[in-house]
From TrEMBL, chain B:
<protein>
    <recommendedName>
        <fullName>Restriction endonuclease</fullName>
    </recommendedName>
</protein>
Length: 305, 569
């Protein structure tokens, strides 16, 4: 709704800073010593660069063939000009069908507005398509997707720079209470290797950068929970039992659910996202009002049986 | 053969490294140390597992030729020069200034790709900007595209080595035909391709792996610029191989190259200074125009230059729009300065002390001597009598044949250099048995027991992570992660008696050449969790077994169970 009470479909105003396409430098900054973490320098919002700029008309547009339907560009448009068309791929409205826009300088800066509401429900086709679309991304695009999802749900995070073999931690960041976390990102069949890599990540962060072990939250960021009988759960419990490290698990589906609900994540401390003696259900950890959230795809919130 | 260095990373990062250096240092004359500092400040470089200033401290070596960051940036700088983004100053090839072309790449922001594409087509040898080994008359990337188009639309890594990158010249149809014939002959079978690559290797005295490394940057460009995509093709004998096919965009570019007028350094040398200056202006701004830059603001300057160069262009049969000529990559520093006068960039950048002057450990690392442990051998009743008879006979035979434990151990290790897990896992346990320890390996498929084997010391089990030579010749940090997990699982799930303070072992064929990262991790794990990880290579283990058989000694129980680091003889 505009200040004058008018409502309607938003339209692309051709923002000069193109927040739907590019992150600014300050968004890529990390707190404290971790700002030296060699992160992916990409400012791209879209992990597949599906959103482009039409220089002639000064508006953004989406290459639908390349769009994975994650909703990142939608969440960053201040004017609601981007939506999931048919619940499938992002589409930019540039024709101002509600006649809300007034003429201003193209590529100019526009005031910041608060976004609320919901991008889409979790039962649209784009949600169900996520495993296939994300699973097909290469390593660099996957980590970019994860970084941007973490950022958009409110976490100060950075993913590693592809090709840097000296630092093997996939991602580092901070909860809202500035508690550091380390993350391993695994969207393929290597989920089982993620917990062992997290132990090493914690050791490196503690030993080389002086963060106390019990103040670091290790997080596996995965595409889908492995089968309920997978060794993954047992290894996570073994690590907690022997080392006192509580490895958290969150899925890309859960991050997308938060994004689509315009919700934020406080971080990974406490009991959230941990695997106790029972099995995990992320729907209970997301802090969303709707307790019976539909699972966007099998394995997004809970292990497949 | 043309040797493109491989600084690693993606093309995106490659451009980010240049942008980081440009944004911090433009306007100055800079050296490689300045660029290293700028790149580290932008979080684009790491060394030995450390980041930021710690990375610089780790990398800085008394011997600069072994300084990893310095060497990496040297490779970047060579490629930046090739692309015309960085120029050496006339007085020194190790001091550089940023060029107008580089500035325009940075100005393009995230839309740098079209200009990068032009710069890649602009790479040409010889060039006054960079001296390369060998005598070449090549525009390599344009030639690669032409060869791909003429070779059924595709080219593999090895074909790139034997074909366009090994050709002395791409001038004229005969040179193209010759390269195409070489490639088509090699496509008979994998063996034919391999022998063609081997011939290049012998002729140039360069190992095949190194030859292949020289293709990494060109392949990354073909892929990331969208010129080619990886697919399979078949040799004429029917076997499949991986190759790179021209995309529609790549084919269109190959067509453009065929239709272009290719102007080289020696062509430009025939022009008068005025013509050369005008040609540089026309070629540069047309290149920017093709890259999507708005050149209207320089329309007047362009028109003036075009008026001067008309006769030259007419002689060449072009109006200047389809010219393959990138002045920043083809002209001398003097000619560039005449065509594009810029503010002086002669002030040397100075920021604190030179890295070369920074006091550094000879190899840039902390003292790691505490992790290299010689074995403490003690008399042991059971030493030398355990293990399978056949293995003891084999070892005795080697000892008798060679007379020396060192030689016998080395020969034994060589015999087992191609062992798979099936042979290697039992071998490791048998060698521990010869040392007088109870040891056994896990059955294949028993996932619950993660460790590959264990050795019992004083009633407690030390889990062993084994890497056979066919899995990895040299142990890697992956084994460290797995040994750590082995210990955690054994402590958590039980099954064998153990205690937290006892070591988790890693046994492999050979220790890594660069032990820095593995030893760093062993220290990190001990500091964070007080868990000990001990590493033994096959030659050392055999050496100890031979001593057990000859001298009736074995490694001290306590040393083995408390091992942290590398056991070495």
């Amino acid at each position: 709704m505009l200040a004058d009470g008018r409502t309607g479909v938003g339209t692309c105003l051709g923002c000069g800073n193109t927040p739907c396409m590019e992150k600014n430098e300050s968004e890529l900054t990390l707190f404290g010593a971790l700002d030296a973490f060699p992160g992916d320098p990409s400012h791209d919002v879209c992990p597949t660069r599906a959103i482009r700029w039409d220089g002639q008309n000064s508006v953004a547009f989406v290459l639908t063939d390349d769009c994975i339907g994650c909703g990142l560009c939608i969440s960053r448009c201040p004017y609601g000009a981007i939506s999931l068309e048919d619940g499938l791929t992002a589409s930019v409205e540039a024709a101002d069908p509600a006649g809300l826009a007034i003429t201003g300088p193209a590529m100019g800066e526009h005031p910041e507005v608060n976004r609320s509401g919901q991008i889409a429900t979790l039962d649209v086709p784009a949600a169900a398509n996520l495993p296939g679309k994300v699973g097909a991304l290469d390593d660099g695009r996957t980590t970019l997707l994860v970084r941007n999802l973490l950022n958009e749900v409110g976490l100060n995070a950075r993913t590693r720079r592809r090709g840097d073999t000296n630092v093997r931690i996939d991602a580092v960041g901070f909860s809202r209470s500035e508690r550091p976390f380390v993350a391993e990102i695994e969207t393929g069949t290597g989920v089982l290797e993620s917990p062992r890599a997290l132990i090493e990540d914690v050791a490196v962060l503690h030993s080389r950068y002086d963060y106390p072990v019990d103040e670091i939250d290790p997080v596996s960021i995965i595409l889908s929970f492995p089968n309920v009988r997978s060794e993954y759960y047992q290894v996570v419990r073994d690590i907690e039992k022997v080392l006192g490290l509580r490895c958290r698990t969150i899925t890309i589906g859960a991050l997308v659910a938060l994004l689509w609900h315009c919700a934020t994540l406080d971080g990974f401390d406490g009991d959230a996202f941990t695997i106790g003696e029972g099995t995990i259900d992320l729907a209970e950890c997301l802090g969303l009002d709707d307790a019976k959230l539909p699972e966007p795809y099998p394995g997004a919130f809970r292990p497949v049986r | 053969m043309l040797r493109f260095p491989n600084p690693g990373s993606t093309i995106d990062n490659f451009v980010s490294v240049y942008s980081a250096a440009f944004e911090r240092l433009n306007g100055y004359t800079v050296n490689l140390d300045n660029i290293v500092s700028a790149v580290v400040a932008a979080n684009l470089a790491t060394s030995s597992g450390y980041m930021g200033e710690k990375a610089v401290a780790r990398s800085t070596r008394a011997d600069r030729s072994r300084d990893p960051l310095y060497n990496q940036l040297k490779m970047y700088a060579e490629l930046f020069r090739t692309l015309g983004w960085l120029h050496p100053i006339p007085q020194s090839a190790l001091n550089f200034t940023f060029t107008l072309l580089g500035k325009q790449v940075v100005a393009a922001g995230r839309d740098f790709w079209p200009l990068l594409e032009e710069c890649v087509l602009g790479i040409v040898y010889p060039t006054p900007i960079l001296t390369v080994r060998g005598d070449f008359d090549l525009r390599p990337f344009a030639f690669i595209l032409c060869v791909m188009a003429a070779c059924d639309g595709h080219l593999s890594r090895d074909e790139m080595i034997i074909g366009p990158l090994s050709a002395p010249s791409d001038r004229g149809q005969a040179n193209l035909d010759s390269v195409v014939a070489t490639i088509k002959a090699a496509r008979k079978s994998a063996a034919d391709t391999n022998s063609s690559v081997a011939a290049v290797s012998v002729a140039r005295n360069i190992q095949v792996n190194t030859l292949q490394n020289y293709t990494r940057w060109p392949i990354a460009l073909l892929r990331d610029l969208g010129w080619a995509t990886r697919r399979q093709a078949r040799f004429r004998d029917g076997r499949k191989y991986q190759t790179f096919y021209l995309t529609e965009k790549g084919q269109a570019l190959a067509d453009r190259v065929f239709a272009s007028v290719d102007l080289r350094v020696n062509d430009a040398a025939r022009l008068t200074p005025e013509e050369c200056k005008a040609l540089a202006v026309v070629a540069h701004f047309r290149m920017l125009e093709r890259s999507g830059f708005d050149i209207a603001p320089v329309g007047g300057r362009l028109a003036d230059a075009e008026a001067v160069v008309v006769p030259v262009l007419e002689r060449l049969g072009t109006d200047g729009r389809n010219l393959l000529f990138s002045p920043f990559q083809s002209l001398s520093l003097g000619e560039i300065a005449a065509a594009f006068p810029v503010h002086a960039q002669t002030e040397q950048f100075e920021e604190g002390a030179s890295r070369a002057a920074v006091a550094a450990a000879p190899d840039g690392r902390d003292d790691r001597s505490h992790l290299f442990v010689p074995p403490n051998m003690v008399a042991a009743e059971e030493a030398g009598s355990g293990g399978p008879d056949a293995l003891r006979v084999e070892l005795n035979g080697l000892l008798e044949a060679h007379g020396s434990i060192e030689v016998a151990a080395a020969v034994f290790a060589e015999y087992h250099a191609r062992d798979t897990q099936v042979a290697f896992y039992p071998l490791v346990t048998h060698l521990f048995q010869i040392l007088g320890y109870k040891s056994d390996y896990s059955r294949a498929g028993v996932n619950y027991q993660r460790w590959d084997a264990y050795v019992m010391v004083d009633g407690c089990a030390l889990p062993i992570e084994i890497k056979s030579p066919t899995e990895e010749i040299m142990l890697s940090t992956k084994a460290v992660r797995q040994a750590l997990e082995n210990k955690v699982i054994l402590l958590s799930r039980g099954g064998l008696e153990t205690r937290p303070e006892l070591a988790s072992l890693i046994v492999g064929y050979r220790l890594p050449n660069e032990r820095g990262e593995m030893s760093n991790l062993i220290d990190d794990v001990f500091k964070a969790f007080s868990l000990r990880l001990g590493v033994i290579d096959l030659t050392t283990l055999v050496h100890l077994a031979l001593r057990a058989m000859r001298d009736g000694v074995s490694i001290d129980d306590r040393q083995l169970s408390q091992l942290r680091g590398f056991l070495g003889v």
